[in-house]
Amino acid sequence: MMRSLLLLFLFAFTAAAVAAYKDPERVVRASDAVTELLRDHVEQRAHAVQIPRGQGGEFALRARINGIAAPMVIDTGATSVVLTYETAKAAGLPLELLDYDVDLETAGGHTRAARLTLDRLAIGKLVERSVPALVVPHGQMKTNLLGMSFLDRLESFEVRADRLVLHGF
Q: Which of 31, 73, 29 is nearest to 53 (CA)?
């Protein structure tokens, strides 16, 4: 908030200085520049999601997979989004058609997973379609992972203090 006010003050001061020289063309250009920068600032905030760090140091969130709420943990070491069998079933994914032919190393050890594509994966206002994902067999994992097959689609992500900020396009 303070950053926005400071930015607004600086632009107003610049516009006032240009107006003092009574050059209408410069005033219009300065006004357009201020409007564009403020619009960009607002749009950038609208396409960002902040996730607080959990007590265990993880960044946990509630995603929506094909419209169904699902808890997830962000894992930049995971090449893909990985869903538990239970979450995939709740999201209405075609589990009976899957072939568990992908070798997967998890924190709990070695398992096999099946490839699929999520129609829609949403984290707050950030929505991606046709996201590649993996599903593990029943009981193999307790947590859904938000891996790089989603994170790579973002403009950027960064850790600020105890918050992870996801920036969409």
A: 73
